[in-house]
Write a structure and sequence with these properties.
The chain has 30 helices and no strands. By secondary structure, it is an all-alpha fold. Its main location: membrane.
Length: about 675
C-alpha cells in the first residue's frame, strides 16, 4: 500500500513567518533591553571590546554549563539523532552523544591551558599569529571561516527544511530569515547577549524535549516502554537493518552506528569559552555530561517511536513508510511530532528548531565577526584600531556572516545537498586543523613549518581519499556516492590524522627551540578610554598579579582535574560502554530495554536541572532581582577594579573572583 507522496504541512505559512520573524524580533528586542539593564546594574558596557567579545571574562559555572549544553544542541542534533536512530537503531544515539560529550569535557582542559598561556587573547587566531606568524595566521583564518561557514550553513539546511515541512514556508525565505533576529541581538549585545539567549533558549528546549519523551511513551498507540519494545522488535524481519546483528533495531552491534560514531568523534573539534577559571572546568564537565542525555534519550525515544508509530494511522505518511529523501532531510522528528500531538506537536518542533538554530547562530556570528574585526581588520587593515573601530567592524562582521551563511545554505538546497550529506562530509574540511591547533596551545615544540604545512597536506589527502574511495566503491564521484558512509569515514580519518603525523615529523626533524610560552603575553587587550571609566577597567591587565603563585597553583590543579574528567568520560562513554556491547552481539531483552530507556530519561531530567535551574542557583536569581529592582550592584565596581589583581589564598582555593581571563575561540561543530 502507498500513502500520499507529499505530506501537507500541519501549520500555516503565517505561523512559520510569525515564529521565524516575530519571535526572532521579540528576542532581539528583549536582548537589547537586557544588555542595557546589565550595563545599568553591573556596569557592563557592550561598547567596549572586552565586554562585547569575551563578556569581561566573567561568566559563572551555572551559566557556562547551560551555554555549553545550548551551544551543542544544534538543530542538526535535534533533527539528526531521531532520524539516524530510525535508520540504524538503538546504538546510534549513544554514538551521537559520546561523540560530543567526550569532546566537550576535553575542552575544559584546553580552556584552562588557554587561561594559563594566553590570558589576553580574544580569538584562536590571535594565538596562531603570535606564535607562528603571518602565513600561518592567514591559513587559520581560512580554516576557521570554512569551519564556521559549514557548521552554520549545515544547521540552516536542516532547520529551514524542517520549518518548510511544518509550515509550507518557502525554504529560501526560511534560510535567510532564521538568522535575522539573531544578527540583531548579537549586533547590539555581543557575547554576553549570546550567553543570555543561550540560557533562555535552552530552558524552553529542555522543557519541550522532556514533554516529547513522556508524550510518546504515554500515547495510546504505544502506551509504555515495554509496548514500544514490542512494536519495534518484529521490524527486524519486515525491514531489517543492513549491518546490524540479526537486522535488529535493538542491538548495539551496528556497523553503520559505529562508523558514524568514528566520524562524529573526529569531526567534533571546537572550542568556545568566556568563563572564570573556577567555572571553566566544572562548567564544561557538567555541561558535557548533561548534554549526553539529549541525543541519548531524545534520539532513542523519538527515533524508535517513529518506527512504532509509522505502522499506525496516526503517522502522517501512513500506510507508506517515509522515503529516503524525507528521512535524510531530517523530517522524522516533524512527522512523529504530528503523530503524537497533532498541530501542537508540530508547533513544538517548530519552536525548538527555531530556538536551537538561533542559539547556536549567535555564537557562530560572534565567532565570525571576531575574525573580521580582530584578525582581518585589526591585523592587516588598521593595525592601530581603536575600541570603537573594532566594535564597528564586529558589527559589520555579524551582518556579513549572516548573509554569507544563508547564501551558502541556499546553494546547498539548490544543489540537492541535504542534512545527512553535510553531517558526514563536514569533518573532511574541518578536521585538518585539529592536532595543529591543540599543539599550538599545549606543545611547545611544534614548529612554524609544521603548523603551516600539516593542515594543508591533511586537507588535500582527506579530499583525495574521499573522492577516490567514492569512485572505487561506487564507480563514480557524485553527490550521492560522495555522501555514502565509507568515503566520508575514510576521508574524515585521513584529514584528521595525517596532520598529526606530519606535524610530529617536521617538528622533530627540524626543531625550533626559540619559542617560549611567555612570548604569547605579547597579545594585549584592547585598551581604549573613549567610553569612559568602564572601558579602562575592563581592559586593564596586570601580568605580575595574574601569574601569582596562588593563581598558578590553582590553574594547574584545575588542569589536572580537567585531564582526569576528559579521560574518564572517554573511557566510560566510549571504551567501556558501547564498544564492548558492539562485540557482545545480542538483541536487547525487554527488561534491558526498559532499564536502558529509564536511565536515559533520568539522565535527561538531570540535564534539565543543570541547564534550567543551576544557573539561577549559581547567582542568577540575585542578579535578576537586582535588575528588576533597577538598583546598581555595589560590588560591580569593586569586582571590576580587582579583576586583574591576584585573589587571596582563600578565594583561590574556592572560586577566585579575579579569574576573569579566557579566550573566545568559537570553532563549534555539529
Amino acid at each position: 500500500m502507498s500513502g500520499p507522496t507529499v505530506v501537507p504541512p500541519p501549520l500555516s505559512q503565517g505561523v512559520g513567518y510569525g515564529v521565524v520573524v516575530g519571535l526572532g524580533a521579540a528576542f532581539a528586542i528583549g536582548m537589547v533591553i537586557a544588555t542595557r539593564s546589565l550595563k545599568r546594574t553591573f556596569g557592563e558596557d557592550n561598547k567596549t571590546t572586552e565586554t562585547y567579545m569575551v563578556a569581561n571574562r566573567s561568566v559563572g559555572t551555572g551559566l557556562t554549563a547551560s551555554a555549553v549544553i545550548s551551544s551543542w544542541t544544534y538543530s542538526t542534533a535535534l533533527l539528526g539523532s531521531p532520524y539516524l536512530t530510525y535508520w540504524h537503531g538503538i546504538a546510534l544515539p549513544v554514538w551521537w552523544a559520546n561523540g560530543q560529550s567526550t569532546m566537550i569535557c576535553a575542552f575544559g582542559w584546553l580552556a584552562i591551558e588557554a587561561k594559563r598561556k594566553v590570558p589576553n587573547a580574544h580569538t584562536l587566531l590571535e594565538l596562531i599569529r603570535a606564535r607562528y606568524g603571518t602565513l600561518a595566521h592567514i591559513i587559520w583564518i581560512v580554516l576557521c571561516l570554512i569551519n564556521n561557514l559549514l557548521n552554520f550553513s549545515s544547521m540552516l539546511v536542516g532547520a529551514s527544511a524542517a520549518v518548510s515541512a511544518l509550515t509550507g514556508m518557502d525554504i529560501t525565505a526560511a534560510t535567510y530569515l532564521l538568522p535575522l533576529g539573531v544578527a540583531i541581538y548579537t549586533y547590539f549585545g555581543g557575547i554576553r547577549a549570546t550567553f543570555l539567549t543561550d540560557y533562555v533558549h535552552t530552558f524552553i528546549i529542555m522543557v519541550i524535549l522532556v514533554w516529547f519523551t513522556i508524550k510518546v511513551l504515554a500515547l495510546k498507540e504505544i502506551g509504555s516502554i515495554g509496548a514500544l519494545y514490542d512494536a519495534v522488535l518484529p521490524l527486524s524481519k519486515a525491514h531489517p537493518v543492513a549491518g546490524n546483528y540479526h537486522g535488529s533495531y535493538l542491538t548495539m552491534t551496528s556497523k553503520e552506528a559505529i562508523f558514524f560514531g568514528i566520524i562524529h568523534i573526529v569531526t567534533n573539534f571546537g572550542i568556545g569559552f568566556s568563563s572564570e577559571v573556577a567555572a571553566a572546568v566544572p562548567g564544561y564537565i557538567l555541561g558535557g555530561n548533561a548534554y549526553f542525555a539529549i541525543p541519548f534519550a531524545f534520539g532513542t525515544i523519538m527515533g524508535l517511536g517513529a518506527l512504532a508509530l509509522e505502522q499506525t494511522p496516526a503517522f502522517p505518511t501512513y500506510p507508506r513508510r517515509m522515503t529516503t529523501e524525507e528521512v535524510s532531510s531530517g523530517l522524522v522528528l516533524p512527522y512523529v511530532s504530528q503523530a503524537i500531538a497533532g498541530k501542537g506537536g508540530a508547533a513544538a518542533v517548530l519552536l525548538i528548531v527555531f530556538m536551537s538554530c538561533t542559539s547556536v547562530s549567535s555564537a557562530q556570528l560572534i565567532a565570525m565577526s571576531s575574525i573580521f574585526s580582530f584578525d582581518i581588520y585589526g591585523t592587516y587593515i588598521n593595525k592601530k584600531a581603536t575600541n570603537a573601530q573594532i566594535i564597528k567592524w564586529s558589527h559589520i562582521g555579524v551582518v556579513v556572516s549572516a548573509l554569507l551563511n544563508s547564501t551558502l545554505a541556499t546553494a546547498f538546497h539548490q544543489g540537492g545537498v541535504d542534512l545527512n550529506w553535510l553531517l558526514y562530509f563536514l569533518g573532511i574540511l574541518i578536521c585538518p586543523g585539529t592536532f595543529p591547533t591543540a599543539f599550538a596551545l599545549v606543545w611547545k615544540r611544534q614548529t612554524r613549518a609544521a603548523a603551516v604545512i600539516s593542515p594543508l597536506i591533511g586537507m588535500a589527502c582527506g579530499l583525495a581519499v574521499w573522492i577516490g574511495t567514492a569512485y572505487a566503491y561506487y564507480g563514480e564521484a557524485t553527490i550521492a556516492s560522495l555522501g555514502q558512509t565509507l568515503p566520508c569515514l575514510f576521508g574524515n580519518i585521513t584529514s584528521s590524522f595525517v596532520p598529526l603525523v606530519i606535524t610530529l615529523a617536521i617538528s622533530y626533524i627540524w626543531p625550533d627551540s626559540n619559542f617560549e610560552w611567555s612570548d604569547l603575553l605579547s597579545i594585549k587587550r584592547v585598551e581604549d578610554d573613549e567610553h569612559g571609566e568602564v572601558a579602562a577597567k575592563a581592559s586593564h591587565f596586570d601580568a605580575e598579579a595574574y601569574f601569582s603563585p596562588e593563581r598558578v597553583a590553582f590553574m594547574k590543579r584545575m588542569s589536572r582535574i580537567a585531564v582526569f574528567w576528559g579521560i574518564a568520560t572517554f573511557a566510560g562513554q566510549v571504551a567501556l560502554w558501547p564498544l564492548p556491547m558492539y562485540g557482545a552481539r545480542f538483541v536487547f531483552s525487554k527488561k534491558l530495554f526498559i532499564a536502558w530507556v529509564v536511565v536515559s530519561l533520568i539522565w535527561l531530567w538531570v540535564a534539565l536541572f543543570i541547564a534550567n535551574f543551576y544557573p539561577l542557583l549559581d547567582g542568577g536569581l540575585k542578579k535578576i532581582w537586582l535588575v528588576l529592582k533597577g538598583e546598581k550592584d555595589a560590588s560591580a565596581v569593586d569586582e571590576t577594579r580587582s579583576a586583574d589583581i591576584s585573589p587571596s589564598s582563600d578565594s583561590v582555593t574556592a572560586s577566585p573572583p579575579g579569574e576573569k581571563v579566557a579566550v573566545v575561540v568559537e570553532q563549534k561543530t555539529a
